[in-house]
Amino acid sequence: MSLELIDGINKIHTLLTDNIEATWVSLIEYVLVGLGFLTLYALIALFLIIFERKICAYFQCRLGPNRVGPWGIFQVIADMVKILTKEIIPLKHNDKLLYYAAPFIVIMGSLLTFGGLQFAEGVYGVDFNVGVFYLLAVSSISIIGVMLAGWSSNNKYSLIGAMRSGAQVISFELSACLSMMAIVILGGSMNLSALMAAQEDAWFIFQSPFTWVALVIYLIAAHAETNRGPFDLPEAESELTAGYHVEYSGITFGFFYVAEYCNLFINAAIGTLVFLGGWQALHIPGCEGFNAVMDAIPSYIWMFGKTLVLIFLSLWVRWTFPRLRIDQLLHLEWKIMLPFSLANILLMAIWVIYFK
Amino acid sequence: MEFITANNIIFALLSVIVLGCGLLSVLTEKLMHAAFYLFLTLVGVAGLYLQMSYDFLAAAQLSVYAGGILMLFIFAIVLVHRIGENSEHVRMGKKARAGFAALCGIAVVLCTMFLFGNFSEDPSTDQFTETVNMELIGCTLLGTGKHQYLLPFEATGILLLACIIGALVIANKEKEDKE
Fold first, then answer.
1. How far is Cα A181 from Cα A203, in angstroms, rounded to an integer?
2. If you write DSSP's letter for every residue of A47-110 in order, what string do you get?
3. Does residue B126 surpass a pLDDT of 50?
């Protein structure tokens, strides 16, 4: 499909260049690409919402949504229409500008990440020279939206939630970045295409034992960055009602909700690209027949399949473990994961020098 | 009509964001609004870097300034009770001095632009398309040769470490006082 997609895009490009002036062609194409990413963003969020509801239902021995459509898969469409038509309740004593701008910053932070991701062989927005760094940099923006939302709501619950969220995300970003740096050492590049090429024979997890350490650290840190259980103390229902988005209603809440699910996808996708070979098929060096069979599976299925596995892991953790306290959380990050990831970088460098 | 290229239109949009939000962040009276506008300015500047395909600087701008330093500002504003609500009134003399400093800055920028700038070249063609290699940046930062920056890098590292240790000592001192 990835080739067909590229063909289709080329057809649109020639159609535009034949009819319109070159200046406007590139502008229209920028807008089209942006719209494409936005659509993908919304579709992924919709899919993940129903995915999580079903998975969580099975973990809790329930059926989950099962009325609208087969297995209730259209429930999420109904919910979307409902949230779009809901009233946005205005608040009296709050900071209007920041209150309404905050959801957009959260969305912007995660949408910008889409530009640097690779979805299949040759399907990506921009192939940045510093791809991994770009992804890490851009994903650190949305926390500003969370802080602004919590502050501008003028509600002590939302403010406490935002402060917790800020402390948590900033702390765990460190471990996520450091664990990826170990892979940058192994792959010898920050460019995602170069990293993909380096994983053609064997994914990075099969190239070095220290990748496993990095993968575990990354999964924990990325999970904590999405503010989901067992790290969901920024929005702990029993203490803070809903944390930083307690005052939001209608689609303004919907933005936070959608961004949460897209961040789940983005974290899993980055993990897949950096650790699990991205869109590369599973190859065993020397087994020609096996490799040929694996190559027959399209690259986008590999990419989204592996991403779904990581998302499933994340959901499994979310619906299984009890919530941590804030001091336990910070202890976990600063006293356990950070030293481990620093040591891991050192060991990885030694491994690359002597065994690779 | 040659002037209206896609590159120039995007540059104009970004400039409007950068300049407009920069002005607003100085002129607004609410501190949190100033931080928000500053954030938009920083993101706009990162956009300008991206347009020049200087990816590393754009990513560094986003992660260090927009993600890091601005977060620090916001934390400080949130933690301090009613900061900026009864700030001192700025006197005329101070305003005049600030205006003079701003004018000097503008003069320096304009002089540099008109003395060394090359306005005839089309920015979309050659000078911006060159990407800077990440390896080059790494070697330059951590090399000991000519035009390489290991010593400043290490000095910055030690300075930051000293800051962290100092902050820890201060934080622990308050705790001891309470006990």
1. 16
2. HHHHHHHHHHHHHTT---S-SSSGGGTTHHHHHHHHHHHS--PPPSSS-HHHHHHHHHHHHHHH
3. no
Looking at the fold, whether B79 and B149 belong to one and the same domain comes out as no
Question: Tell me: the pLDDT tens digits for A93-128?
Answer: 778 888 888 888 888 888 888 888 888 777 787 888
* C-alpha–C-alpha distance, residues A43 and A258, integer Å: 10
Which stretch of A11-20, A159-168, A180-189 has the lowest confidence by average pLDDT?
Answer: A11-20
Contact A163 B62 (CB under 8 A): no
Q: Write the DSSP string, chain B.
A: -TT--HHHHHHHHHHHHHHHHHHHHHH-S-HHHHHHHHHHHHHHHHHHHHHTT-HHHHHHIIIIIIIIIHHHHHHHHHHSTTTTTTPPPPPHHHHHHHHHHHHHHHHHHHHHHHHH---SS-TTTTTTTPPPPHHHHHHHHH--STT--HHHHHHHHHHHHHHHHHHHHHHHHHHHHH-
Q: Is residue B26 part of a domain?
A: yes
Residue A202 · residue A283 · CB < 8 Å: yes
Q: Using a CB-CB distance cutoff of 8 angstroms, which residues of chain A are in contact with residue B77?
A: 151
Instruction: Tell me what the mean pLDDT of segment A279-303 comes to.
Output: 80
Question: Residue B46 domain-assigned?
Answer: yes
CATH assignment at residue B37:
1.20.120.1200
Are A129 and B6 within 8 A, CB to CB? Answer: no
Task: Give the DSSP letter of residue A284.
Answer: -
Does B71 share its domain with B139? no
Which among B33, B8, B10, B12 is positioned nearest to B23, based on CA atoms? B33
ipTM greater than 0.90: no
CA angle at A110 for the pair A109 and A112, rounded to the nearest 5°? 70
Residue type, A315: L
Count how many domains chain B has: 2
Helix (H) or strand (E) holding A235: none
The residues in A 131-160 lying below 8 A from B, measured between CB atoms, are: 133-134, 136-138, 140-141, 143-144, 147-148, 151-152, 159
Domain extent at residue B71:
1-85
Q: How far apart are CA B36 and CA B24, in angstroms?
A: 10
For chains A and B, count residue pairs whose Cβ atoms are closer than 8 Å: 91
Q: Are residues B2 and B77 in the same domain?
A: yes
